[in-house]
Amino acid sequence: GRVSALGDAVNYGDAGLDLVIKALQDESKQVKDLAVELLRKREQVKAKSALLAYLLETQPHDAKTYNERGLIRQDIGDLKGAIADFSEAMQIFIYNIDFVYNRGFCRQQLGDIQGAIKDYDRVIFKNNQYADAYLNKGICYQDLRKYQKAKDNYLKFIYFKDDSVIAYYNLGLCSYNLKQIDLAFNYYCEAIEVDPKYPHSYM
To answer: What is the pTM of this model?
Structure first.
């Protein structure tokens, strides 16, 4: 029947994938449920996007689904779309700081540094052990040439993750820009110790 045919369709490349996506609109609940199950197992952006569009259509108030679509949009470079999805997820479930962090990261990539810092601050306010928020907030301040604030955040990040070559290297760079030459040298040495193959540390 249609169910077994749909199960076989995934073996036929893009044409098969199109059939599975089309099955999301089938009148039979059994067919639709199988299409959802099959699409969940696919890694293609087309499959994920179709599945998430369907889920948002049938479950319009599901924050996790908005977040998942935001991550896909982020992966394909649609940062504005991703920000819209993360914002929607935040409105539905305001206590999930992962949604806030994800939006901050996309804002940072778009060059909205102040917006990103606000999101990272919100994350840290809710969970002061969210290490990656400190790292990216440090990068934001470094981009603004606020080197001491950048250093403060890198040091907080290293407190939780002391094996980050990027954090040590950036600490060295910020220290150098603050004319703290000996300190910069020490941080570059730390970066080399973490990863001797990291080329920038030898500059």
So the answer is: 0.82
